[in-house]
Amino acid sequence: MATFFVSRLKSERDTSPIASGPQETPPMYELNGLSGEWLPLLLTYTNPKHLNSVTKSITGMAKTEMEAKLFYRKPLVVFVLGGPGSGKGTQCPKIVEHFGFRHLCAGDLLQAEIESESENGKMIQNFKKEGKIVPSEITVKLLQQAMQQSDNKRFIIDGFPRNEENRAAFENIVRIKPEFVLFFDCPEEELTKRILNRNQVTLLHILVAESLPMHLFTTFSVFLKGRVDDNIETIGKRLKVYFETTLPVINYYNSKGKVQKIDAQRSIKEVFEDVKSVFAKLRPVARVGSTK
Ligand SMILES: Nc1ncnc2c1ncn2[C@@H]1O[C@H](COP(=O)(O)OP(=O)(O)O)[C@@H](O)[C@H]1O
Ligand SMILES: Nc1ccn([C@@H]2O[C@H](COP(=O)(O)OP(=O)(O)O)[C@@H](O)[C@H]2O)c(=O)n1
């Protein structure tokens, strides 16, 4: 049976476009449960673009012929959670700058979808206005696409997972568990104050822009559009959603020992000092996504 399996893999390799793909990238695949003789065959599949089809075809064969499982180096993911206004968007660019992660903000990806006037754009806009969580399949697809398009394999994913459905969908579709969850803990009163302030700053910018000549105003207003959800009514709804649906997700990860809690009430600089000490402990390249 082993010989047959090897020959199937060989013929798959010989006819697959992957075999002729670039070979200089480091090996991405590891086999678990198969003897070493299988490894070199599989290490020739090094083009990440073909990952899905190769994974499918190899595991497809393996399922019928032996209980083999294919593993590959999955990206390292850190979820960044905290109430609206807790400072996620302020701290993430600093993490990028200091630790070389790619920052993916779920809210920004959804906003880009609204602005692209895609099929789902209007629906997403309505969820956002109401402070509701957009259906997970949409958000997870956007995150997955962004991850696949990135050369970076270390991601901080900000504002996700916002509820249990988000969490389960990511695990089922992307099949990656977070290395840890960075949690910006901040009291409700402070969150409200900060979000209202964020919108006032934007409104002030728009007033300034309105006093400018038309062509400058048009340019400015594109950059300084206020958020549809930073008003007192929607803020109340967003906070309710946060306490009712996001905190349980944070508690879930806490029960798994995965939460790194940061006191987000202090100054931006002090908060980042704590963030730095959490990331400094991170191993350089993590191997995630095994059976753990
Ligand atoms: N530690 C902090 N102290 C005071 N204000 C802060 C702090 N962190 C962020 N802010 C301000 O609070 C507002 C919300 O921060 P932001 O990073 O956009 O939050 P989030 O992305 O979590 O919604 C912004 O106007 C930001 O400048
Ligand atoms: N995982 C997510 C993240 C954001 N969103 C939507 O996007 C809105 C804004 O999220 P955001 O992360 O940009 O902003 P904050 O609420 O953190 O300030 C949320 O209120 C939701 O309507 C979502 O539906 N699902």
In short, what is this structure?
Catalyzes the phosphorylation of pyrimidine nucleoside monophosphates at the expense of ATP. Plays an important role in de novo pyrimidine nucleotide biosynthesis. Has preference for UMP and CMP as phosphate acceptors. This protein is 54% helix and 12% strand.
**CATH architecture identity of the largest domain:** 3-Layer(aba) Sandwich
Roughly how many Å is the radius of gyration? 23 Å
The number of helical elements comes to 12
Tell me, rounded to a whole number, the average pLDDT.
Answer: 75
Unreliable sequence segments: 1-48, 54-72, 285-292
**General shape:** globular
What is the string of SSEs from the N terminus onward? HEHHEEHEHHHEHEHHHEH
Largest sheet, strands/sense/barrel:
5 strands, parallel
DSSP strand content: 5-15%
Reported by name, the CATH topology of the largest domain is Rossmann fold
**Total domain units:** 2
Measured between the Cα atoms of the first and last residue, the distance is 29 Å
EC number: 2.7.4.14
Catalytic activity: dCMP + ATP = dCDP + ADP; UMP + ATP = UDP + ADP; CMP + ATP = CDP + ADP
Keywords: ATP-binding, Cytoplasm, Kinase, Nucleotide-binding, Nucleus, Pyrimidine biosynthesis, Transferase
Cofactor: Mg(2+)
